[in-house]
């Protein structure tokens, strides 16, 4: 075990629990996503024929949605009014709005638990609002199904998409372990390397849908989270500790 690929972007601050594994076990850890997010152009967005000014409130389920909502508002020359209300699945997303608006001067609501289920009662108290929900064009968000289950009325519109972050011909693919966090990452592996053979390569995956994608692809799942290793970095740490002889 010499080289591990963790399919996540590099942290801006240069700190990551995966880098701690690198120091602890003397393995090389590369943070490099298999997928990337790209925004829809203003032309593509207009094809959905959704007029942002018609809505009095926005539901945000991810920071990515926040970024592309304000980007498209700028590209379509729509001035976001101070009266617009924001409903966020988590406090983290709510505070992320500070990147674009003066937080204390806006009406912002969020689920303190970070769960979509707990945002529903807040939305129901403001049932006179007209809600817009920015989503990915290519990836289903389980939080959306929760809104549907509670009969929340909203208009869903794609503002970004998730695509394969293709490997370049000169980019080496000499990893002993691959770690996935999304079914799309598994699909990207297959599209980049259609003749991929797992062999002795260790594969880790986080989340039910991702582990299922690994198995459906005919690959062997070696590492996933558990009650005693709830994060992926902890799960990898546990595997490396158990398999020291392979290092």
3D structure, described in words:
With 247 residues, the chain is of the alpha/beta class. The chain has 2 domains: 3-34 and 165-246, Rossmann fold (3-Layer(aba) Sandwich); 38-162, Rossmann fold, CATH 3.40.50. Helix content is 33%, strand content 20%. The chain has 9 helices and 10 strands. The strands form 2 sheets. It has a 6-stranded mixed sheet. A 4-stranded parallel sheet has the order 2-1-9-10, sandwiched between helices. Helix 7 runs parallel beside helix 8 (208-216). The termini are close together. The model has no long low-confidence stretch (mean pLDDT 91).
Can you give keywords for this protein?
2 domains, single chain, four-stranded parallel sheet, six-stranded mixed sheet, 247 residues, Rossmann fold
Number of domains: 2
Distance between the termini: 5 Å
- Main sheet: which strands, in order across? 3-8-7-4-5-6
CATH architecture identity of the largest domain: 3-Layer(aba) Sandwich
Q: What is the average per-residue confidence, as pLDDT, rounded to a whole number?
A: 91
Strand content: 15-25%
Structural class: alpha/beta
Largest sheet: 6 strands, mixed
CATH fold label of the largest domain: Rossmann fold
The CATH class of the largest domain turns out to be Alpha Beta
Oligomer: single chain
Helix content: 25-40%
Strands, total number: 10
Overall geometry comes to: elongated
Weakly predicted, low-confidence segments:
none
The number of helical runs is 9
Q: Which radius of gyration do the C-alpha atoms yield? A: 21 Å
Order of helices and strands: EHEEHEHEHEHEHEEHEHH
């Amino acid at each position: 075990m010499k080289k591990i690929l963790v399919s996540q972007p590099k942290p801006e601050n240069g700190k990551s629990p995966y880098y701690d594994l690198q120091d602890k076990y003397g393995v090389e850890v590369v943070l490099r996503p298999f997928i990337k997010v790209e925004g829809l152009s203003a032309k593509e967005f207009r094809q959905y024929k959704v007029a942002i000014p018609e809505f009095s409130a926005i539901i945000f389920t991810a920071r990515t949605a926040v970024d592309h909502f304000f980007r498209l508002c700028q590209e379509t020359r729509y001035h976001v009014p101070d009266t617009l209300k924001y409903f966020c699945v988590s406090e983290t997303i709510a505070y992320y709005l500070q990147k674009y608006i003066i937080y204390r001067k806006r009406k912002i609501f969020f689920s303190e638990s970070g769960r979509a289920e707990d945002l529903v009662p807040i939305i129901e108290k403001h049932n006179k609002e007209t809600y817009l929900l920015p989503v990915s064009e290519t990836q289903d968000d389980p939080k959306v199904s929760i809104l549907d289950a509670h009969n929340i009325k909203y208009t869903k519109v794609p503002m970004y998409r998730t695509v394969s972050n293709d490997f370049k011909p000169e980019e080496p693919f000499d990893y002993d372990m691959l770690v996935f966090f999304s079914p799309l990452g598994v699909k990207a592996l297959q599209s980049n390397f259609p003749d991929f053979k797992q062999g002795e390569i260790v594969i880790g995956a986080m989340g039910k849908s991702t582990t299922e994608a690994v198995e459906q692809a005919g690959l062997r799942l070696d590492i996933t989270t558990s009650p005693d290793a709830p994060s992926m970095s902890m799960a990898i740490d546990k595997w490396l500790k158990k398999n020291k002889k392979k290092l």
